[in-house]
Every structure is written in C-alpha cells, then in structure tokens.
C-alpha cells in the first residue's frame, strides 16, 4: 500500500488524510524532515499559502520539500498548488517552483469566494469545491491540463506532480486522489 504524507503545518490536512485512506492509501501527517523521508509521495493541502510558507521556513522544511519534489510526487491543492507553481502573482511570493505554471492568488475575487460546481474529468462529471481559489494563468510546455473550469485549467500535471485549484478532499469522489496515487507506483 502506498504511504502518502500530508503536509500538516496548516490548512485542511485532516480531510486529505481521510480522502487518501478512502482512495486506498496509507496517509500520514508530515511535520518533520524525518516524517517526510518516510513517505512515497506528499500532498500539500489547501489553506493559506503565505502562512504555510512562513511555517515551512520556521520548521526549516522549505529546502527539504524542494529536494523531495525533485525525486518524488507532490500533489498541491489550492494553497498547495500556489506553493508548487513557478510564478505567483497577486501578490507575488516565493514558491517551490516544482511545476512550470503561473498562478494568480484569490483570482475569483471576493464576490465569488467559494462555490461548488461541476467540471469534467475524462468526460465524466466531477463535483469541484473552490475556496478563495487561484487561477492558473500560464502553463509551461511540459504541463498537461486534465480539467478546466470557465476555460481555465483547474487540474494539471507535469511529470510526477499534480495540482488542483479546487478541493478534491471535500467531496466523496476519489478519482483525483487515485490519479495521484497512480504516480507513486
Ligand atoms: N487563498 C489562499 C491562498 O492564496 C488559497 C485558498 C485555499 O487553499 N483554499 O493561499
């Protein structure tokens, strides 16, 4: 059984652990370099990317995470997608730069802070929960877009890494988790 870490410094890591377990993985919370070294892949959850960045610095985990991502799969959702991106705007901030995408934070504006909507994944409906989501404004050549909403990419992969601007851990459907788990084998 794949052993998947969920970065547990801030954000909705508990929901991710449950969703990964439902998808058939062993999920463990990761707060230290030793815990990170014990997992085959990592989920960076939604939350507040600025706060997560600060905590990564305080815990001395930023460089470890970057080195982990050079070898093993990372799945970033929402704030986690912002941390994986190469460029971040609104405002610009530091990131791991592991995926060749450019994201705009809080891009749907205050009026449309959160919504539940339906998107298509492989031709089938998928319920997608957006919470103060970023928009992926640029995708590099090596990036494959797997799902869109309103013409913008919302689920994308590059090699071993996966990002979603929505929250697949908040719905019962485990197809997105399974996409990630397939990268671990
Ligand atoms: N708005 C948050 C950020 O910019 C992301 C929101 C989320 O993860 N649900 O970091």
Q: Largest sheet, if any?
A: 7 strands, mixed
* Strand numbers in spatial order across the main sheet: 2-1-3-4-12-11-10
Q: Using DSSP, what is the number of strands?
A: 12
| SSE-based structural type | alpha/beta
Mean pLDDT: 96
In CATH, the architecture is 3-Layer(aba) Sandwich
**Secondary structure: helix percent:** 25-40%
Strand percentage: 35-45%
Through-space gap between termini: 10 Å
Shape category: globular
Number of domains: 1
CATH topology: Rossmann fold
Class, according to the CATH hierarchy?
A: Alpha Beta
- Cα Rg: 15 Å
Mind telling me the CATH superfamily name?
A: Class I glutamine amidotransferase (GATase) domain
Stretches where pLDDT is under 50 for at least 5 consecutive residues are none
Question: How is the topology of this model organized?
Answer:
Elements: E1 3-7, H1 13-22, E2 26-30, H2 33-37, E3 41-44, H3 49-58, H4 62-69, E4 74-77, H5 79-84, E5 85-89, E6 99-104, E7 114-121, E8 124-131, E9 135-139, E10 144-149, E11 152-158, E12 161-164, H6 175-182
Parallel strand pairs: 1-2, 1-3, 3-4, 4-12, 5-6
Antiparallel strand pairs: 6-9, 7-8, 10-11, 11-12
Bound molecules: glutamine.
Glutamine (GLN) is lined by residues 46-49, 78-79, 82, 105-106, 131-132.
What features would you describe in this structure?
The protein has one domain: Rossmann fold. The chain has 185 residues and is α/β, with parallel strands linked by helices. A hairpin with a 2-residue loop joins β7 (114-121) and β8. It contains 6 helices and 12 strands. The relative contact order is 0.18. It binds glutamine (GLN). Glutamine binds at residues 46-49, 78-79, 82, 105-106, 131-132.
């Amino acid at each position: 059984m794949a052993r998947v870490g969920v970065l547990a410094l801030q954000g909705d890591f508990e929901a991710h652990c449950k969703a990964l377990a439902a998808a058939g993985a062993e999920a463990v919370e990761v707060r230290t370099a030793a815990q990170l070294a014990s997992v085959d892949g990592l989920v960076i959850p939604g939350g507040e990317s600025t706060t997560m960045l600060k905590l990564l610095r305080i815990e001395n985990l930023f460089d470890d995470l970057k080195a982990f991502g050079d070898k093993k799969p990372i799945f970033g959702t929402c704030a986690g997608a912002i941390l994986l991106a190469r460029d971040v705007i609104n405002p610009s901030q530091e990131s791991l730069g592991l995926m060749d995408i450019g994201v705009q934070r809080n891009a749907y504006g205050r009026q449309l802070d959160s919504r539940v909507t339906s998107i298509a994944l492989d031709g089938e409906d998928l319920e997608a929960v957006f919470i103060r989501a970023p928009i992926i404004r640029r995708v590099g050549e090596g990036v494959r877009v797997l799902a869109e909403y309103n013409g913008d990419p919302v689920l994308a992969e590059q090699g071993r890494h996966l990002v979603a601007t929505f929250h697949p851990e908040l719905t019962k459907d485990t197809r997105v988790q399974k996409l990630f788990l397939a990268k671990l084998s």
